[in-house]
Fold this protein.
Amino acid sequence: MEHFFAALTGYLIGSIPFGLVLTRAAGLGDVRNIGSGNIGATNVLRTGRKGLAAATLMLDLGKGLAAVLLVRHFWPEAVAWAALAAVVGHCFPVWLKFKGGKGVATNAGVAFGLAWPIGLAYALVWLGVLGLTRISSLAGMSAVLAAVIMASLGGWPEFLPVLLAIAALVIWLHRENLKRLREGTEPRLGGQK
């Protein structure tokens, strides 16, 4: 039952669609009708509102962190279930007919919640690749792999299965981005689509 409640808690927190809530509150309509159709910060940025995109990023990160920390307080043995469920909740929110974001920011919060060095590795790789390439999808996929490597090398083998599962999910959700990366047509932040 602990695992069930941990997963349910993680899923419900992770499924809060902050990108949609913020863009609607700002009078910009449904963010799913522009760009990639996702609810994450990168697509919110396509509205031209950098402040809203930053707020979406921080709130999506925060819900991943909150899910892990809350479950760690009540059911510490089931924290991995909450971590996975928070990312799944963001990607497949029940409130939006299971069509959400790609989980990168939420997984950043999860990584920090599991162990701060894993989160730090995630953030450094994410920001570093984004700064060098200006390609959001490449930065996100690199970051999820960095979390797996840090957990493996840094002495957190108990988190490897969940981080591998999350990495597989995030990369699978970026399959169209991977195709565009191979073709050289993936858009860069600040560039033309």
Summary: The two ends are 47 Å apart (CA to CA). Residues 2-183 form one domain.
